Structure formats: C-alpha cells, structure tokens
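Sequence in, structure out. Go.
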Amino acid sequence: MLRQLKKDQHQLAKEIRQMPEVEGVEVVTGATDMVVRVRVRDVEEFDLFLLKKFQKIQGMDKTQSLIVIHES
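Output:
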C-alpha cells in the first residue's frame, strides 16, 4: 500500500504498473491511495525490488508492505 504526494494518481499508477514485478495497481479511498500487488520469488528479491526500484519512483510519500502467507 502506498500514499502518494502531489503527482496525479492515475499517472503514478500507470508508471508503477510498467514494472515487471507488479501484477496490479488499484487506486483506493481512505488513508492509503493505492494498493500495489507484486510477485517475487522470495523476501530477498522483494527487498531488492522495494529498496532499489519501487521506493525510488518520484511522487510517493509512504509505503506499507504486507506479505501474503497463504492464498486460496
């Protein structure tokens, strides 16, 4: 989940969606502006994605990560 700064939400979502690890981006209401679904192999790959790629995108204020432990 992320909260964005002044950049247009739809433009930011489109930019994020171009990343190969990203499976989906939803613009939502409330304290969070977007939910971004990412698929990576393991926690180490997620760490690299988050710190080296995702958090470097201009226009984001804050991110919160949730890791799925079971999918049905």
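Check: Strands lie at 2-4, 22-27, 34-38, 60-63. The mean pLDDT is 89.
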